[in-house]
Amino acid sequence: MLRLFAKKKGSGSYADSPVFSGGRASVKLLDQIGDDKGMLIYSVERDDGGIQIREDGRYRWMHFGSGSIQSAMDKENPELLVLEYMRRMFSFLIFKDNAEDLLLLGLGGGAMLRFINKELPQSNVTAIDIDADVIEVAEKQFGIPHNKKNTIKQSDALFYLECAAEKKFDVIFVDLFSGDTVPEEIYSEEFIENAANILHDNGMAIINILPVDVETFSVLIKRVRVEFNCRVLCLPVPEHDNVIIITFKEEVRFSAEYLRSMAVLLEERYHLQFSRYLTDIFSYNRNSSVINYTE
Q1: In CATH, what number does 83-292 get?
Q2: Please, which of 102, 112, 172, 290 could form a disulfide with 205 given CB 3.0 to 4.6 Å?
Q3: What's residue 212's pLDDT?
Q4: pLDDT tens per residue across span 239-279
Q5: Phi, psi (rounded to 5 degrees) for 157
């Protein structure tokens, strides 16, 4: 989920933290989409505000009765990643370009699933979503692909992690929201530990977070650092509230020069701004043990 409008800048450390933008976020990237833009083409009425699908001439998007966009699709190029936070979640490719088994916790409109099927055709994908309505909307309104590479299950993410210990994944994407908020379970030690347990030894977990405040975010980061032995990077999403947390299960150390060369190669292959993502990773993680800046 992408929150289009940030919280107003306050006097506390939340606004001053380097991973938070503060102030109102710009929507210039996709200022034509929103809960009051385009035409309403489909809705699911529920007590929690329901699900609305809107579209204009080019884009179709989903939101849950709020200003936060859950998913968006370019109707002319459905496999493209429209939302910036999703593009940045795939910055993991700079560090690991051979992922065969992927787990998506949170399906949304299936944008990441479509991208993976097109750009990473060797990968098997398991997608988990607790909301049957979301799965139905993804199938009927966003045309998520059904093929032997994809497994889509309705399940609670925490329950799935607890029961899937025998199954191992190369990469886990965590993009879970209940309305506009991240479920409290994501912040728990149990969730983080279970996520780490179903990763291969060289696996990675990529977590999209909308921090409520700096204290809550700090608690989460501390728990993630403990579980992954400080092998953690933070990547903010410019002009939005999202922060992408990138974790490594095994001991790794990459030279900055190697990562720069990988970013250039990946840009040519996937047409995403990997060099820009890497520049931001460098800027916000100067003391990380994952990156050697001196070689």
Answers
A1: 3.40.50.150
A2: 172
A3: 77
A4: 888 899 999 999 999 999 999 999 999 999 999 999 999 99
A5: -60, -45
